[in-house]
């Protein structure tokens, strides 16, 4: 996989499609409009629309923030978020270490 750019691109595209679908389903399940979810993420409503339609890509920060908001309901296929403890950090309280393991 290391030298297979085409294979990596296919896996990335598959992951993005799953994330888009999961975001839409989770938003509907929690009875949130695009505007309400956008407000929680501090982005525009059009950004959520673009995420869901695939016109733009979520940053890792957005993916992790969605995980923090929705917990295990927000599954990130091919990645595992694992909490391995907490470290006190200034006025932010506790910062949790994240382990992302690809399949």
TrEMBL record:
Keyword Coiled coil belongs to the record: yes
Coiled coil found in the keyword field: yes
Protein name: XRE family transcriptional regulator
Keywords: Coiled coil
Pfam families xref list: HTH_19
Coiled-coil ranges per UniProt: 9-36
UniProt-recorded Gene Ontology molecular function terms: DNA binding
Stored Gene3D superfamilies: lambda repressor-like DNA-binding domains
UniProt domain HTH cro/C1-type: residue ranges: 23-66
């Amino acid at each position: 996989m290391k030298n297979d750019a085409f294979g990596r691109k296919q896996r990335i595209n598959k992951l993005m499609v799953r994330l888009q679908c999961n975001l839409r389903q989770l938003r509907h399940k929690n009875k949130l409009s695009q505007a309400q979810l956008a407000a929680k993420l501090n982005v525009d409503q059009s950004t959520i629309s673009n995420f869901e339609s695939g016109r733009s890509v979520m940053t890792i920060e957005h993916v992790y923030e969605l995980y923090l908001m929705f917990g295990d309901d927000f599954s990130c296929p091919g990645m595992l978020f694992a909490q391995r403890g907490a470290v006190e950090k200034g006025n932010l309280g506790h910062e949790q270490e994240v382990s992302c393991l690809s399949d």
